[in-house]
Amino acid sequence: MFNNLTTPVVFAGALVAATGVASAGGYTVPVVAEPVIAPVAAPVADWAGAYGGLSAGYVFGGDDRVGIHDPSDALLATPGSADLSGATYGVHLGYRWQREFRGRQIVYGPELAYEGSSADDSFDTGSASAESQLDNLIALRFKTGILNEAQNTMFYGIIGAMRGEFDYQVEGAGMDYDDSFDTNAWTVGLGVERMINDRVSVFGEWEYRDFGRTTLTDAAGYSTEATPEHHVVKMGVNFSF
Questions:
Q1: Chief subcellular site (predicted)?
Q2: N or C: which end of the chain has fewer CB within 10 A?
C-alpha cells in the first residue's frame, strides 16, 4: 500500500518544487538585438575641374550720350545717343574648385572668355551723325556659386574685368572722327547653371558692363567722350573635361 503511493507523491513534490523555483526567479524573455545599419551619406555632385563652353547673348540698355567739343574743350553740341544693342557670341575656358561650407557645397573659380559682337547703334540728325559698334572683347571673370539641395543646380555671382574693341564714328559741328579704340571695363552679374549629366551643363547669365569714359579726338582737335556701358543676357552650354 505504501509503495503504491510513493510514485504520485514524489511526482507531486517535484512539480511543486519546480513551480516554486519558477515563481521565485520569474521568466525572462530573451532579447534579440536589432542589427545596426549605418546611415548612407548622400553622394556629392562633382562640379570641380576644368571646363569649356559656348554662349550666345544680347546686348541692351546701353547709355552713350554723344557730345561734341571744340579744340578748347567747349561743348558745341549733344546731337543724340548711340546706345548699343544687338547679338553676341562667345567661347570660354575655366576652372572650378568645390568646398563644403556650413553644410552647403560652394563652387568657385576663374573663367577666361572671348566674345564677338554685332551690337551697335547710330543716329543722324541731318546736322550731325554718330555710330558705335562693339566688335569684340576679352574678359577674365571670377564666379562663386552655391549648389541647391539636389546639387544639380548652381546659383552664382560674377565679378571681373574685360577689354573691348569698338568702332566709333562722329561727324558734325566741326568734328570728323572715324576710327576704332580699345578700352577697359569692369563687370558684375548673376547666373544659374544646371547639370544635364556628369559632363554637360547649361547656363543663363545677366551682366552689367561699365567701360567708363574714353576721349576720342579727330585730326582737327575736336573731341567726344565714348561711354559704351550696357547690359547683356546670355545663354550657353559648358562641357567638363
A1: membrane
A2: N
Q: pLDDT, tens digit, for every residue of 186-196?
A: 999 999 999 99
Q: Are 232 and 187 in contact (CB under 8 A)?
A: no
CA distance to 14, 23, 156, 184, per residue, from 190 (Å): 89, 78, 6, 20
Burial of 204 (0-12, 13-18, 19+ CB in 10 A): middle
Note whether 110 and 141 are within 8 A (CB): yes
To the question of pTM greater than 0.85 for the whole model, the response is no
Take residue 56 and report the three cell numbers written for it.
550666345
Q: What angle do CA 52, 57, 60 make, to 5 degrees?
A: 145
DSSP-derived secondary structure for 123-141: EE-SSEEEEEEEEEEEEEE
H/E run at residue 162: strand 153-172
Estimate to the nearest angstrom the gap between the alpha carbon of 172 and the chain centroid. 44
Rounded Cα distance between 238 and 88, Å, is 17
The C-alpha atoms of residue 99 and residue 188 are separated, in whole angstroms, by 23
Contacts of 93 (CB under 8 A, 6+ apart): 50, 51, 52, 111, 112, 113
How far apart, in whole angstroms, are the C-alpha atoms of residue 142 and residue 160?
6
Of 68, 114, 62, the closest CA to residue 89 belongs to 114
